[in-house]
Amino acid sequence: MFSVILPSRPCLTDVVPLSSDPTVPANNFAFTFPALPKFSHIVIFLLPGVVLPADTAAAVYVQFPKDLILNPNTGTAAPPLSSSATNADPEFKFLGAIANEKPSAIFKVNFPSARRRTEAEEEDDMMDEGTSVTPANTVDINPNATITLGITIEPVQAVASKIADLQNQTQNQIQLQMSSFPSTTDLLKLSTGQQGAAMAKWAPSSVSAKTLAKQIIGNAFNYLASFAVSDPRVPGEEVVPLRVFRDWWAKFENRIDADPGFLERVDAP
Residue 234: enclosing H or E segment and its boundaries? Predict the structure, then answer.
C-alpha cells in the first residue's frame, strides 16, 4: 500500500501489516530500516492504484530505538532518552499524514540529540596522524540501530486534529526562540561592536567551514608576510619572529570580539 524513500537509499516497499485478526484488513503498518546513514527528510506515498477508505487518512509516526545513542565511554547503548520511562519503549512521534487527496508528502525528521564531541577530543584526532575522524553526523549513533516508521489508517477528523496540534507546537517553538531575540530598542542601546556581536549570535551563517578556514589563513598570511625578514642561515629563505604571530593572534581575537561576522565577508582583509 505504501512506499518510503530515504536519501541515498533504495525505495522501500516491504511494509509489514500489523493485525491481530488475519481475516480483517490491517489498519496499522510498519517499516523498519537502519538508522544510518542519518537523514533529515523522508518521503512517503501511496502506491499506484491504492485508495484509502472514505473519510480516512494515513497518519505517519516515527519511533527511534532505545539503543540509538551510544555511551561515548563504553561504546554500548546509553540509557533511554526519556528518564521517566526507563523500561518502556520510546513513543511514536507524529510526523503528519497522507490521504487520497494528497497521496505523497515529505516529512522533516529530527534525530534525538547525541553527545557532541569536545574541542579537546577533536583536537586529539587532528593531532593523531593516520587517525580517521568520525563525521559529526554519525557521532555516538549506534550503527546497528533500526528506526520504525508506523502508518495507521485513522478517521480524517482525528488526523486533522493531530496536524493542528503539531502546527501549534511548531509555532510555539518559533515564538519561544523569537522572544529571546534582542529588540530594536535593546540594540540601539549597544555600541556598534556590541550590536554586531548580538546580531551575529542569531544570524544564520551561509559561509562554509572551508571558506572560513581560507579567510583565517589569508588574514594571518597577509599580516605575517609584512614582517618577514631574510634568514641569514638559509640564503633565499624568509622567517617571521614568533612574537609577530602572537601580535596577530591578539589583534585577530580583538577583531572577532568587535565584529564576529567579518570573516564571513569574502572580501574581508
Answer: none
Would you say 87 and 118 are in contact if contact means Cβ atoms under 8 Å apart?
no
User: What DSSP line would sit under 86-136, residue for residue?
Assistant: SSSPPPPEEEEEE-SSS-EEEEE--PPPPPPPPHHHHHHHHHSTTPPPPPG
Band (pLDDT 50/70/90 cuts) for residue 136 is: very low
Please tell me whether residue 11 adopts helix, strand or coil conformation.
coil
Helix H or strand E encompassing 172: helix 156-179
Which residues are registered as beta bridge partners of 2? Answer: 46
The angle at the Cα of 223, spanning 221 to 227, to the nearest 5 degrees, equals: 105
pLDDT bracket for residue 129 (50, 70, 90):
very low
What span, in angstroms and rounded, lies between the C-alpha atoms of 66 and 90?
6
What digits encode the pLDDT tens for the residues 168-219? 888 777 776 666 555 555 555 555 555 455 555 555 555 566 777 777 888 8
Q: What's the Cα-to-Cα distance from 56 to each of 1, 6, 48, 125, 160, rounded to whole Å?
A: 14, 25, 18, 53, 10
Query: Long-range pairs for 100-107 at CB < 8 Å and ≥24 separation?
Result: 100/46, 100/51, 100/52, 103/45, 103/46, 104/43, 104/44, 104/45, 104/46, 105/43, 105/44, 105/45, 105/60, 106/41, 106/42, 106/43, 107/41, 107/42, 107/43, 107/44, 107/60
Contact 149, 16 (CB under 8 A): no
* DSSP 8-class letter at 138: G
d(CA 198, CA 227): 34
- Write out pLDDT tens, residues 23-51: 888 999 999 999 999 899 999 999 999 99
Distance, CA of 64 to CA of 33 (rounded, Å): 11
